[in-house]
Amino acid sequence: MNDNGKKKLITSKHYYDFLLKSGIKFVSGVPCSTVNKLLHYLHASDEIRYIPAPREDIAISLSFGYGMSTGELPLVIMQNSGIGTSLDAIMTEPLLYKVPILMLITWRGFYKKGLNEIGDEPQHWLWGDVTKLILESIGIKCFILDSVNQYETTKRAIEYSKTSRKPSALLLKRNESIYEDR
Hints:
It is a single chain. By secondary structure, the protein is α/β, with parallel strands linked by helices. It has a single domain (about 25-110, about 130-180), classed as 3-Layer(aba) Sandwich (Rossmann fold). Helix content is about 45%, strand content about 20%. The protein has helices at about 10-20, 35-45, 55-70, 85-95, 120-135, 150-165; strands at about 10, 25-30, 50, 75-80, 100-105, 140-145, 170, 180. Helix 1 (about 10-20) crosses helix 2 and helix 3 (about 55-70) packs parallel to helix 4 (about 85-95). It is globular, with a radius of gyration of 15 Å.
């Protein structure tokens, strides 16, 4: 919180700069409106290679190949509904071969209608309930980003992935952590 009691928020540009400073050089993912501006910075970057993917399993495979061939930590960006299409790729590539990958997963369905002024669409509600459970059931450690711990939580997830040689997941609640530049 800042001195006025308001949430400390970071912009997409600040988070992009933080990823670059943290050594992220490769990102793949499926476009998501929750991190639209961050994707814009990645797409325009000469320092971080960003390859948009048509499906989440393809983003996992591209990142797995990058990580396996370079030894560096790649980033995958996806919505939590993409976990369903990427489970096989996660389990048979980075988990099986111990290749660390950082996954930034937008946590759709975390907010239910009537429980929070933000709300989420009904088709996301079930995914909101099971996202963390599914990831943890296959051995993926989850780190939850909120409005005050973006940098520290991302650092911990990066360190965990590098040390454990496993993927880790940063779960990003919509309208909670990374804000569009204004």
